């Protein structure tokens, strides 16, 4: 889906709405080699013109199949998110009217390629840790080797709590500094 910036600016009276199902599998897989499969991407949105320029609000829904970050087993990851972006011409140099938190996209050749923007945002939404349902529910399936093992955060917290006790061989030393402080 592509629009020229001038075409979008002409929608001052009535916002431009859209609802499409896109096949972005090839583009996403070319940009991220970890992606195994991509379902069709459902996209709904609106473009409006305001005092800042052209503003787009897009809601995206899709499913990706990614390798588990623990076992590399194929895992389905549903993605449902929305994003808001402001679009400006490549000839505009003063962006001071925008807040620091605004996402401002400078359009090359003043053409908005929404497919590219959607791909960018899908790639940003991929979680750092992808786990299968079994891996999420079980701490026992952690990999281990001869002199190493992977522990979950809950196991780590428990082992740290157990280590808070003083080593019996050093129990007499724990009060050493208390006595020297009392004498001074």
Task: Explain what you see.
The chain is an alpha+beta fold. It folds into 2 domains: 2-136, no CATH class; 143-183, no CATH class. Helix content is 26%, strand content 33%. It is built from 6 helices and 8 strands; from the N terminus they run E-H-E-H-E-E-E-E-E-E-H-H-H-H. It has helices at 5-9, 25-31, 114-125, 133-137, 153-163, 176-183; strands at 2-4, 16-22, 37-38, 41-50, 53-67, 74-89, 104-107, 111-113. The strands form 2 sheets. Strands 2, 3, 4, 5, 6 and 7 form a 6-stranded mixed beta sheet that branches. The chain has a two-stranded antiparallel ribbon with strand order 1-8. A hairpin with a 6-residue loop joins strand 5 and strand 6. The termini are far apart. The model has no long low-confidence stretch (mean pLDDT 83). Residues 135-167 are annotated as: Disordered. InterPro entries: YceD. This is DUF177 domain-containing protein.
């Amino acid at each position: 889906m592509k629009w020229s910036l001038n075409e979008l600016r002409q929608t001052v009276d009535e916002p431009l709405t859209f609802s499409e199902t896109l096949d972005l599998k090839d583009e996403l897989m070319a940009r991220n080699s970890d992606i195994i499969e991509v379902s069709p991407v459902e996209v709904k949105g609106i473009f409006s013109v305001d005092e800042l320029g052209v503003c787009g609000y897009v809601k995206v829904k899709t499913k990706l199949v990614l390798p588990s970050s623990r076992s590399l087993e194929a895992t389905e990851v549903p993605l449902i998110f929305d994003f808001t972006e402001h679009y400006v011409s490549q000839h505009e140099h003063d962006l001071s009217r925008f807040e620091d938190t605004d996402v401002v996209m400078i359009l090359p050749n003043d053409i908005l390629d929404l497919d590219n923007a959607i791909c960018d945002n899908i790639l940003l939404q991929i979680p750092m840790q992808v786990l299968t349902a079994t891996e999420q529910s079980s701490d026992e399936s952690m990999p281990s080797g001869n002199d190493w093992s992977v522990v979950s955060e809950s196991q780590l917290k428990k082992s740290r709590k157990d280590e808070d006790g003083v080593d019996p061989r050093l129990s007499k030393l724990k009060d050493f500094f208390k006595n020297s402080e009392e004498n001074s």
